[in-house]
Design brief:
Blueprint (H helix, E strand, L loop, with lengths): L7 H20 L28 E4 L2 H6 L12 E8 L5 E9 L10 E5 L2 E8 L23 H46 L1
Antiparallel strand pairs: 1-3, 2-3, 2-5, 4-5
C-alpha cells in the first residue's frame, strides 16, 4: 500500500508536463527549417558531411601533421580523405599534405607512387573519418580505399533508429507511472478525508 507523501501532489502537474515535453520532442521526426526568402514554404536543411580528415599543408613529417592537424568536418561534395607524401631517397619525409578531397581528386589514375629524380611521391585516398592518419610510403599502401559496403551502413542506421523508439517507450512508461501515482494519491487523500 502506498503511503501518503505530502510533497507528491504539488509535483504531479510538473512531472506530467515534463513527460509531455519529452514525448513531444521524441515524436517530432523532422528538424525545424527556416522559411525561404519568399515565404512560400520551407527550405530543406543543408546536407551534412559526416567525414572528418586530418588536414595539414606542406608539413615536414607525419607526426607534426597529425599532432597539429586542424580538426573540422569536410565540406559537402568531398567524400575522401587524401594524403600526399613526398620522401627523399632514404625514405625520409620531406613534405606531407592531408585534406578532404572530391571523387575527381581521388581517381585511380591519381593515386599511387611516382619516382622523380631523388624524390618519391605517394598519394592515397580513403573514406572514413581520420582514415588518413598514416602516410603512404610504397605501392602497397598508396591506394584508393574502397567505399564501405551497404550492409555496414544499414546496421549502423538500424541501431541509430532504435534509440529514439526506446526513449519513446521509456517516456511512455514514465508517464503511465505518474498517472498511477496521481490516482493512488487521490484515492489516499479521499480515504483520509472520509476518516476525519
Amino acid at each position: 500500500m502506498l503511503r501518503w507523501r505530502p510533497w507528491l501532489p504539488p509535483l504531479l502537474p510538473l512531472l506530467s508536463l515534463l513527460t509531455l515535453l519529452v514525448l513531444s520532442d521524441l515524436t517530432s521526426s523532422s528538424p525545424t527549417a527556416a522559411p525561404t526568402e519568399t515565404g512560400a514554404g520551407w527550405s530543406p536543411p543543408a546536407p551534412v558531411n559526416h567525414l572528418t580528415c586530418y588536414f595539414c599543408e606542406n608539413v615536414e613529417n607525419n607526426y607534426i601533421c597529425n599532432r597539429f592537424a586542424i580538426d573540422h568536418p569536410c565540406p559537402a561534395g568531398t567524400t575522401f580523405c587524401r594524403t600526399l607524401h613526398i620522401m627523399d631517397t632514404r625514405g625520409g619525409s620531406v613534405v606531407v599534405n592531408k585534406h578532404c578531397a572530391t571523387e575527381d581528386q581521388c581517381r585511380d589514375d591519381r593515386v599511387g607512387c611516382l619516382q622523380q629524380d631523388h624524390q618519391k611521391t605517394c598519394v592515397s585516398c580513403c573514406h572514413s573519418s581520420y582514415c588518413n592518419e598514416p602516410v603512404p610510403t610504397n605501392y602497397s599502401n598508396a591506394v584508393r580505399q574502397p567505399k564501405p559496403t551497404a550492409p555496414t551502413r544499414a546496421v549502423k542506421s538500424a541501431g541509430a533508429a532504435a534509440a529514439p523508439r526506446l526513449l519513446l517507450l521509456l517516456a511512455a512508461a514514465a508517464s503511465r507511472l505518474l498517472l498511477l501515482l496521481a490516482a493512488a494519491a487521490s484515492r489516499q487523500l479521499l480515504s483520509g478525508s472520509r476518516q476525519l
